[in-house]
């Protein structure tokens, strides 16, 4: 299994923009989301998606994570959503304000004949900082924690083995705090979150955090990219 050494930008940690909706007071309020386009995401039929395997990850704001996995060869579709908690049918407001135990997560539909689960795990660890507890870049809180979900013992062993290799080579310089959790359920996020980066290129968070994060990933994982993602 190859280890990819990823230089992680300090700039990302210093940015003040955040995926989390801002409160003007201590009392939570409904997030004010700027919807720069109302075009719905063109979804693939359920029948077609059933031909693919699924994998689940959480590594900060799902706008960023969705865009990263959608650039990977063998990945057919990615949905933003919520997982890792016990509450039923969570909303963005509840998750983003830390009112649930869920994290912002993604559901990845992929072709194992093109890309393996092991390679998706490499993408996951290579596209975020797994050493920051309950934080990813400017986004803070358990809802932005790092989680690698597994659906069976084989996947669990793959994740644990890869973490051990990363730590044995001191790739990040600090202990990895990623949760390795058995997958239970995924709740798809509200429609305006799907393909958010593509549909809202002028959003300040997308310009300052999401796109730079995606570009860093592309620079380090060129061989993993779809032809139209270079």
TrEMBL record:
Residues 54-205 form the Peptide methionine sulphoxide reductase MsrA domain. Keywords: Oxidoreductase. Its EC number is 1.8.4.11. The keyword Oxidoreductase applies. Gene3D superfamilies: Peptide methionine sulphoxide reductase MsrA. It catalyses: [thioredoxin]-disulfide + L-methionine + H2O = L-methionine (S)-S-oxide + [thioredoxin]-dithiol; L-methionyl-[protein] + [thioredoxin]-disulfide + H2O = L-methionyl-(S)-S-oxide-[protein] + [thioredoxin]-dithiol. One of its GO terms (molecular function) is L-methionine:thioredoxin-disulfide S-oxidoreductase activity. The keyword Oxidoreductase applies. InterPro entries: Met_Sox_Rdtase_MsrA_dom, Met_Sox_Rdtase_MsrA_sf. It holds the Pfam family PMSR. The active site is at 61. HAMAP family: MsrA. Belongs to the MsrA Met sulfoxide reductase family. Has an important function as a repair enzyme for proteins that have been inactivated by oxidation. Catalyzes the reversible oxidation-reduction of methionine sulfoxide in proteins to methionine. This is Peptide methionine sulfoxide reductase MsrA. It comes from Flagellimonas nanhaiensis.
